[in-house]
Specification:
CATH class: Mainly Beta
Number of helices: 1
Structural class: mainly beta
CATH superfamily: RlpA-like domain
Shape: globular
Distance between the termini: 37 Å
CATH topology: Barwin-like endoglucanases
Strand content: 35-45%
Strand order of the largest sheet: 3-7-4-6-5-8
CATH architecture: Beta Barrel
Length: 126
């Protein structure tokens, strides 16, 4: 029996097998700061990515992350989290790092507060 070498076929009792090692596509990044959420007046307007803003989707705006980036947002006050997809640019208020859709804000319990301290977790492409 031969040792398995990633990406090269090997034989086990007449069967051919191929071992593929899948590694993550980027290094994990954590960012902390203040989050807010979109006002109702933005409902239906186009986002910077071209998608129509829908307040009941789990989406968010970030100043620099590529569109389509999946981000885990954790509310530091209560530990609740939500996964969102970046589809817009912003927030354009000093000191804020992310704007959430209303659905995402509700999921982490920040609707009444309006602004909350959060931690963002995502993978940055190398």
């Amino acid at each position: 029996m031969q040792k398995a070498i990633s990406g090269k076929p090997f034989y086990i009792k007449g069967l051919i097998a191929l071992v593929v090692i899948i590694s993550s596509c980027g290094k994990p990044v954590m960012e902390t700061g203040k989050a807010s959420y979109y006002a109702d007046k933005f409902k239906g307007r186009p986002t910077a990515s071209g998608a129509k803003f829908r307040q009941w989707k789990r989406t968010a705006a970030h100043k620099t992350l590529p569109f389509g980036t999946n981000v885990k947002v954790v509310n530091l006050a209560n530990g609740r989290s939500v996964n969102v997809k970046i589809n817009d640019r912003g927030p354009f208020v000093a000191g804020r790092i992310i704007d959430l859709s209303k659905r995402a804000a509700r999921k982490i319990g920040m609707l009444n507060a309006g602004v909350s301290n959060v931690e963002l977790r995502y993978k940055k492409k190398s």
